[in-house]
Fold this sequence. Notes:
Layout: E1 5-7, E2 10-12, E3 16-19, H1 26-36, E4 40-44, E5 69-73, H2 80-93, E6 99-102, H3 115-127, E7 131-136, H4 140-149, E8 153-156, H5 170-179, E9 185-187, H6 193-202, E10 206-209, H7 211-214, H8 219-239
Parallel strand pairs: 3-4, 3-10, 4-5, 6-7, 7-8, 9-10
Antiparallel strand pairs: 1-2
Helix pairs in contact: 1-8, 2-3, 3-4, 4-5, 6-8
Amino acid sequence: MSDSLVIxxxxxxxxxxxxxxxxxxxxxxxxxxxASGAEIVTVAIRRTNIGQNPGEPNLLDVLPPERYxxxxxxxxxxTAEDAVRTLRLARELLDGHALVKLxxxxxxxxxxxxxxxxxxxxxxxxxDGFQVMVYCSDDPIQAKMLEEIxxxxxxxxxxxxxxxxxxxxxxxxxxxxDQSKVPVLVDAGVGTASDAAIAMELGCDGVLMNTAIAAxxxxxxMAGAMRKAVEAGREAYLAGRMPRKHYSAxxxxxxxxxxxx
Length: 261
């Protein structure tokens, strides 16, 4: 693709970001991520070993930081304090790495974001020198507040994490996209390739997913499908779709010079 995704001043060819959880083993993780073409890989610091547990298998052995941009996230955090502590640990483990994904959850059943705690954590992290990509509700007002705090990307959910329900409120996503001066990426709820394509056709700058790939019958095959869907959706958005017409047909072939006319 000719255009690049730019986050915190760095360019990426791929607009698909992927998670590393729920795979059967590290070999499947690596194969799926290779098939996805993703360059940014998010890692749940509270659930995945990236060096904090010496002697245990280390994800960075199969996904080396020199090849991928590792995006530590705060999955499993329910307070701003826990999220900030987790990302400070990640920065130490990754030798000062500043780009992070913030998510502060409201409850363990829905995994819906707790926005007051998310805003609080974002403000602390930005002041502490982090480049914050932030999981949030699809509320345009709160998305704007996160941008004004200094987050480098806002990532509204399409639907609940792990639900596979796709984009339930495209109108709010468009409001966020239209007002934002930082990248907007759909995060959570994508179930299949068409969901990813729709997100990109709406004008999202990228899509982040994990369960849609890892929980597929054939994760590696699905990863390749998601890669193509994101690329196709982006190209369709750039091309500009034809206008919808509910009132008349418009033949695709010329009507002049028809036999018998």
